UniProtKB/TrEMBL annotation:
Source taxonomy: Bacteria, Pseudomonadati, Pseudomonadota, Betaproteobacteria, Burkholderiales
Source organism (scientific name): Duganella vulcania
Name of the featured protein: Conjugal transfer protein TraL
Stored SUPFAM superfamilies: P-loop containing nucleoside triphosphate hydrolases
Length: 242
């Protein structure tokens, strides 16, 4: 994994974009010794930039009048292109449309590829009540770009299936765009009282899995469950056609 640029893009808020960013960043860091560069473009909830271990750079694109100034994304692109290495860009629901518009209008994906970068868009589809909106977001992202996609299936809100029981990945919506998907990662719904509580504790403290291993704030079984979760996620990421 070298000279890759990963955009986490989904217009719906609260669907797990920052969680995906942190998991992906930890996986890339374990794969490549080159320092990983992380960016957070969320203007309301800059959660990703609170993970100290990842040294995330916040990209301020909101003006004093609380509108998004697309030109301020220039600094992000210049920063990405100035040095070789891997980059992860987390994005908030509030900046999804402005960032997507900027990337497409300025032909940024081609610019990155011409500069020797491998570009990926990571998009999240959620289950339960979030399925319809996030599935539409997946389609919109697939149709507006030609960039390889990595699909994250977030089961936290329920299974990714329609009222008739059809899985999202068996739907026509998915089939029409599946050739673009280079890999899928399932964020499985695990026992909320054990695994769920431990992951929440870890995320609330803004810690990486490595920091949890070295922390005295987590007991042996909490560390074990977090290890199990990350082993599963990393194995899934290993299978993506990068």
């Amino acid at each position: 994994m070298q000279n890759s640029v990963h955009f986490i893009l989904q217009g719906k808020g609260g669907i797990g974009k920052t969680l995906v960013s942190t998991i992906l960043a930890q996986w890339i860091s374990a794969k490549d010794e080159t320092p990983l560069r992380c960016y957070d473009t969320d203007q309301e909830n800059a959660t990703f930039s609170r993970y100290k271990a990842m040294d995330v750079k916040h990209v301020p694109v909101m003006t004093d009048s609380r509108t998004i100034d697309p030109k301020r994304f220039d600094a992000l692109m210049i920063d990405i292109l100035e040095e070789d290495g891997n980059c992860v860009i987390d994005n908030g629901a509030n900046t999804f449309s402005p960032l997507m518009g900027y990337l497409i209008e300025n032909d940024c994906f081609s610019l990155l590829e011409e500069s020797g970068r491998k570009v990926y868009i990571h998009t999240i589809v959620g289950g339960g009540d979030t399925l319809h909106d996030t599935a539409m977001g997946f389609v919109s992202t697939a149709k507006s770009t030609s960039v390889p996609l990595v699909l994250w299936e977030n089961e936290h809100f329920g299974l990714l299936q329609s009222a008739s029981g059809k899985q999202f990945t068996e739907s026509q919506t998915y089939a029409d765009n599946s050739s673009r998907v280079k890999g899928r990662v399932v964020l499985s719904a695990r026992n909320a009282d054990t695994f769920g509580a431990d992951i929440k504790k870890m995320n609330t403290a803004r810690l990486t899995a490595q920091e949890v291993r070295e922390s005295d704030k987590f007991n042996l079984m909490e560390k074990q469950r977090i290890k199990v979760v990350f082993r599963d996620l990393f194995e899934q990421l290993d299978k993506v056609e990068w």
